[in-house]
Design goal:
The complex is a heterodimer of chains A (about 300) and B (about 300). With about 300 residues, chain A is mainly alpha-helical. Chain A is built from 12 helices and 2 strands, in the order ααααββαααααααα. In chain A, α1 (about 5-30) crosses α9 and α10 (about 235-255) crosses α12 (about 280-295). The chains are: A mainly alpha (about 300), B mainly alpha (about 300).
């Protein structure tokens, strides 16, 4: 594998993670709890798209759009039924509740669609092959969608009324409410935006690999790592976190650590030292620990009291 | 399996999960530490004890102590990283740490000496049961049940004494926010680390008991799922109440095991049933958090 190829793989991974971590971070920003059901919502979207695409025969793009909007709406319903009753509870209580919700969602999906891997009905991708790398049209799409999502978030936060209201609600909910911002309305919109983006991210991962009920759990650690790394509650941090993690996961397996372990030639332990592929899920975790040890509030973390 | 054997099995499982539930209750219920990786202690206890007893041919009691020490040490190491962090970070770090432990045992079969003991994804079989030769196949489960109950009682006494001591008052004040204990000059970080070490070693104890009862351990017995079942026990039984933690373990274990027989009565596939069982566990957590915040047995609140 060439370096160019690893860079491309890293950017694709970062784009997917961005779509998921942006939503997680704005929900945290407004509601002040770590939503462990976030990636499970994404999987709901993935399976809805599967139903629309395979069972009903819709085109994948149409299926993905409808499924993501429906999932966004579904998250509002869940918010009304569960989280709305807990607005005054502490973050840890809501977090544990979201964990229960995550278990229920994941297993409902497994009960309906089964535990086997499935695929969308899309034609086989013919990759563009050059001397240095190969890339599928889908991967190009993933990168384009990831970049557009980042740009859209920037516009949303700084150039819309909703973005201004969101930032105000995040800083001080009581003050925002007193200034005539309908906090509940903002919360509803934040859920919709966050989960719609998450669902698109999930569907893209499903398209690139395959669909499993457990894919939500498989990405929860990378998504949380990306979010926390950048400073939880900070959308720009989530983007940087996703980028760092995308590169770390791919380069972590690519780099030969021989020089480091042998102290640049002083020692002679082994000729080749790669991280075994079985440990790929561990990379994001190790990076997370390193970041938390150096900067407990993340790379772009806000300073808050207590 | 006869009814009496099934009941002995059920009681042993209740005992083992009761220990896990008490351990998590000490961490979450009393100290407010959201450990989403409780299964790591369970896994470490099971594996370390297996290695000590099976590979190094040492007596059961050394396996038990070894498992407790290593799992407790692991809890201590994890809390070095997390001790200064907020609870949201605590949850994700412990969840990830538990997965790393599992991935480690999945990938490294040399830790059990490989070869005759297999290891890795195949798991390790033939783990000796303590004093097995003294009993018949019929009476042995009852002897093992006695061991489990003694361990459960010991765990209960230790954790109950701890939580009623001045130590318990400090950790409860940590749960309510760092400012009060800090104002009283308590080193909050050290207390959190101690709680994780104690909680971890009891989690390890449960793992040892589990491994030597089943005689087989493999990495996919220690999925994050187990952690969530233990959480359901603490939340349903009543957090910050040790009797509640045991009651929660009893209720969830009865529910979890009795639903297995459903497939004999209604036409439903094993996989679907397993999923529905977990749906029920998830819904139970949500409903309990919404409508029954204190759990079945409430925390005893004393006013000084």
């Amino acid at each position: 594998m060439t370096v160019t190829q690893v860079v491309i793989n890293s950017i694709v991974r970062a784009s997917e993670l961005t779509l998921l971590s942006l939503g997680l971070t704005i929900v945290y920003d407004i509601l002040k709890f770590a939503n462990f059901a976030h990636t499970e919502f994404a999987v709901v979207g993935v399976y809805l798209a599967l139903f629309l695409n395979v069972t009903l025969g819709l085109h994948i793009i149409l299926a993905a759009i409808i499924a993501s909007f429906v999932t966004g709406g579904f998250s509002i319903l869940i918010d009304r039924a569960v989280f709305k009753k807990m607005r005054s509870s502490s973050g840890i209580i809501i977090m544990v509740t979201s964990l229960g919700l995550a278990i229920a969602l994941r297993n409902t999906i497994r009960a309906i669609w089964g535990a086997d891997a499935q695929n969308y009905a899309v034609p086989l991708q013919t990759p563009i092959i050059t001397e240095y790398f190969r890339i599928t049209p889908l991967q190009i799409w993933i990168i384009v969608i990831g970049l557009s999502a980042m740009f859209a978030f920037h516009l949303l936060l700084h150039h819309t009324k909703l973005g201004k209201a969101m930032r105000a609600t995040s800083d001080n909910p009581e003050l925002a409410q007193a200034s005539g911002i309908a906090t509940e309305k903002i919360i509803t919109r934040v859920w919709f935006i966050a989960i719609t983006f998450a669902s698109i991210g999930g569907i893209l991962i499903g398209l690139e690999t395959y669909i499993l009920p457990y894919m939500g759990f498989a990405i929860i650690v990378p998504v949380f790592c990306a979010t926390i790394m950048g400073g939880i509650g900070n959308p720009y941090g989530a983007m940087i976190g996703a980028l760092v993690l995308g590169f770390a996961e791919n380069f972590g397996l690519y780099i030969n650590f021989e020089k480091i372990i042998n102290l640049g030639g002083i020692l002679n332990f082994s000729k080749e030292l790669f991280i075994p592929t079985g440990y790929k899920p561990a990379i994001s975790f190790i990076i997370l620990i390193l970041v938390l040890l150096i900067r407990p509030r993340g790379i772009l973390g806000k300073k808050k009291e207590g | 399996m006869g009814l009496i054997n099934f009941l002995a099995y059920l009681a042993i499982m209740m005992g083992i999960y009761g220990i896990l539930s008490l351990s998590l209750n000490l961490q979450y219920g009393f100290t407010g530490l959201a450990n989403f990786g409780q299964v790591a202690f369970f896994c470490l206890g099971a594996y370390i004890s297996t290695i000590i007893v099976l590979v190094f041919k040492m007596p059961f009691i050394f396996g038990l102590l070894g498992g407790m020490i290593v799992a407790g040490f692991f809890g201590y190491v994890i809390s070095i990283i997390t001790a200064n962090l907020k609870e949201d970070y605590w949850a994700i770090v412990t969840l990830a740490a538990a997965e790393i432990v599992r991935i480690f045992f999945l990938n490294e079969d040399w830790v059990v000496g490989g070869g005759p003991y297999q290891g890795g994804s195949f798991g390790i079989g033939g783990i000796p049961q303590p004093l097995r030769s003294l009993f018949s196949a019929y009476t042995y489960p009852f002897f093992y049940l006695a061991i489990v109950l003694v361990c459960l009682l010991a765990t209960y006494i230790v954790i109950n004494t701890l939580t009623q001591s001045p130590f318990g008052k400090v950790i409860k004040s940590i749960r309510e926010g760092d400012n009060l204990p800090l104002a009283l000059g308590k080193d909050v970080k050290r207390f959190r680390m101690k709680v994780m070490a104690i909680g971890g070693s009891f989690g390890g104890l449960a793992g040892c008991l589990w491994a030597h009862y089943h005689g087989f351990v493999s990495p996919n017995q220690f999925l994050p799922l187990e952690t969530f079942i233990i959480w359901a026990m603490v939340i349903v039984g009543g957090k910050a109440n040790n009797k509640g933690a045991i009651l929660g373990a009893v209720i969830i274990m009865i529910f979890y095991n009795s639903t297995r027989f459903l497939k004999d009565y209604i036409p439903i596939e094993e996989v679907t049933l397993a999923s529905l069982r977990m749906v029920a566990i998830g819904v139970l957590i949500v409903v309990a958090m919404l409508f029954m915040k204190e759990g079945l047995i409430k925390e005893k609140k004393t006013i000084y």
